[in-house]
Amino acid sequence: MSVSVLRGAARSIFGSRGALRALEKTTGIRLRHVATQAESAQDRWSRRPRKKVLLSNLPFKLDIAELEQLLKSVAELRSVEILKDWAGNSAGSAVAEFATMHDCHIAMQTLSGYRLHRKPIAIELDENAKEKNKMVNECAVKIFNVHFAYKWQDVKDLAREMGAEATSGQIVRADGEQRTRSYAVLIYKTPEDAKSAVGIIDKQMDRNRRLRCVLAMDKDPPLEEGEEDFYDRASLLPDDF
């Protein structure tokens, strides 16, 4: 019930606006407080600003239509977006906005630990998930033309020896379709550290190869001499590379 309806009902009982003020003064009851108390719990949830949840540990090849259908089956969904990594691929997480906070809590209680393609979903309130994901991407660099036999630890050790130690990363292999080049990714604590790493690593020589290093969100550099050998042979590498 809205405040205006309550005020109208009160005027019909107690008379003029002045009489209403007198009533509030003598009784200590404010009509706005009465109206708030009369609202349903769901209405109160609806006024709260944070109605978003972060879903993580999602299958990387999950179709957004399947995720949307799942979320709609448990609560009133407004929108859902799968977050992307520096390469434009799924980051294994998504942000969903629900109609009310009540819907958020229903989704959290229902889907926490739910196995989607055998992976248990983690879900939590998070209004700033997209911004955090963007920050991670801004802290990443890509290194091209590394030796085809290198594993992630080899690249991490190489960066440390150069004075640009990273916190984490991975090898991204060419697949001949979406990615025609293979490269290594390093993640740093801050965007400033990532920019510094680019200055340190870019155009350094390693095993007779000139490394090219750019911020992950920047345009990829041109192919280096001999780099074709790297992605041609990448298809022959074992799965745990």
Order of helices and strands: HHHHEHEEHEEEHEHEEHEEEH
| DSSP strand count | 12
Question: Could you name the CATH homologous superfamily of the largest domain?
Answer: RRM (RNA recognition motif) domain
Give the fraction of residues assigned to helices. 40-55%
Number of helices: 10
Q: N-to-C terminal Cα separation, in Å?
A: 62 Å
Helix/strand-derived category reads: alpha+beta
Across the major sheet, the strand order is 2-3-1-6
- Principal-axis shape equals elongated
Please describe the biggest sheet, giving its number of strands, its sense, and whether it closes into a barrel.
4 strands, antiparallel
Keywords: RNA-binding
InterPro entries: Nucleotide-bd_a/b_plait_sf, RBD_domain_sf, RRM_dom, RRT5_SRSF_SR
Pfam families: RRM_1 (PF00076)
Protein name: RRM domain-containing protein
